[in-house]
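Format notes (please read before filing issues)

Several people have asked whether sequences and structure tokens are stored in separate files. They are not. Every record keeps both together, in the order shown below: the sequence lines, then the token lines. Line labels are part of the format and must not be stripped during preprocessing.
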Amino acid sequence: LTYVSPRDQYDQLYLWDGNRARLLTRTNQHHRNPVWDPAGNLYCLTGEHGYYRPATVDQSDGTTVIIWPYRETVLELAPASDGFLVTLYNNKRSEFYRYQPSF
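Then the structure lines:
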């Protein structure tokens, strides 16, 4: 289980194994909406000031790598069989897209 909790003024990800919780991310950015894909990979939205982009999360050290090259505010991220479904906020409305990263 992965959850979000504030630490030092930023929302960080924690990983709970059923017995104890471990701080996963430790950066000066917010981390939100952690999601797992069927293969066991972890993703989240990371950023600051209301501007968030999807990223992979390394489960061993909490390193995040941005997988969304665009400058848009992503509200939600959901793994799909062929990529991701994303909800964007643009011009005072939400829009849904399918995104296929090249990794």
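For reference, the curators noted about this record: The beta strands are 2-7, 10-16, 21-23, 30-36, 42-48, 51-57, 64-66, 73-80, 83-90, 93-99. The mean pLDDT is 93.
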